[in-house]
Design goal:
Elements (H helix, E strand, L loop, with lengths): L1 E10 L7 E8 L3 H10 L6 E11 L4 H7 L12 E2 L2 H13 L2
Antiparallel strand pairs: 1-2, 1-3, 2-4
Length: 98
Amino acid sequence: MLYSVHGWYGKRNSRKQQSKIEAIVFAEDSYLARKLIESLFDGYPAKLDSFTTAGDNEQSLEEIYQTNPELRFEDPKRGFIYNEIYHRNCIERYFRTQ
């Protein structure tokens, strides 16, 4: 349901310091949450390290929709990343700079 995904990423074959991503994901399970975050790095020479997914499956879907009305039209089987544009911009900036 709602998962917090944390991890480090860096450029392959580079000594540039790694950067951290912390994202909140609405997904059916933790595997899908992780895959959604990994899909943000498609097209970049990224090395992903130590990703962890923490979540809470105790809430029902109806409780989540009541506490987070913006998710009412999102399907948990498809998934949704909060602030996806912000995360894409951070990743793009990281790989664009030297």
